[in-house]
Amino acid sequence: MSDGQQGDSISEELHWIVERDMEKCSLCEVCTKSCKTGALEARIDGNVITIFFRAELCDGCGLCVQRCPEEASILTRIDGPIYATSARILSTSNLLQCLGCGAFFAPIRKLENILRHHPGMELVTSLCPDCRRSRMVVEVIETKRDVEGPALHKTGRKWSWKPVLGDDDPDGPPCPKP
Ligand code: SF4
Ligand code: SF4
User: Fold this and answer.
1) Which residue among 26, 50, 64, 95 has the greatest number of ligand 1 atoms within 8 angstroms of its CB, and so is best to mutate?
2) For residue 84, what pLDDT is reported?
3) What's the CATH class of domain 14-94?
4) Is 13 exposed, middle or buried (0-12, 13-18, 19+ CB in 10 A)?
5) What 3-state DSSP class applies to 91?
6) Domain range list for the chain
7) To bridge 20 with a disulfide, which of 31, 90, 98, 106 should be the other Cys (CB 3.0-4.6 Å)?
8) 27 lines ligand 1 (CB under 6 A)
C-alpha cells in the first residue's frame, strides 16, 4: 500500500527499471520499437525527441537491452513494490533540420554516432532521407545526360536514356529534349 507520499503501489513484489548511458545512447529508437508492452516510448515535440520509460508497464523481458546497438540500455530488477505511475525521461536530443526542406528529421546524437562510425557521410547529416533521395535522382539524371546525351525518353512507366535519334533514323523522330 501507499506510504502516504507515493500513492498506491502497482506491484508489491518486484519491478524492473530501465536506465540509459547517455554518453552512448543515440536515440535510434531500436529499443522503443522492440518494446512490446509500451514501457518505452519515443515522443517528438517540435525539434526535440525524448524517450520515456514507464516502470509499471515493463515486464523485464530484456529485449531493449539485447537489441541496443550502442549497449546503452541497462535493465535492473528491483525487489520491492513500485509506486511510479508516470513516464520517466530516459534520454533526449534535439533534432537536426534538413538543409533542403527544413524538416526536423533525426536526433543530433544519432547523426554524431553515424559520423563517428562512418566519417565522410556529411550528406546524411545535412539532408533528410526524402531530400537525399531527390538529390540522388537528380545526380543520376545529370550524370546520364553528361554521358549519354540530352534526350530523355519515357518508355512505359520508366524513364530511360538514349542518344537523340536523327530525323532519318528508322526508329522514328527524335524525342523532345527535357
Ligand atoms: S538505448 Fe540503445 S536502442 Fe535505445 S535509443 Fe539509445 S542507442 Fe538506441
Ligand atoms: S525490458 Fe522489455 S518490457 Fe521492459 S522496457 Fe525493455 S523491452 Fe520493454
Assistant:
1) 26
2) 58
3) alpha beta
4) exposed
5) strand
6) 14-94, 137-178
7) 90
8) yes
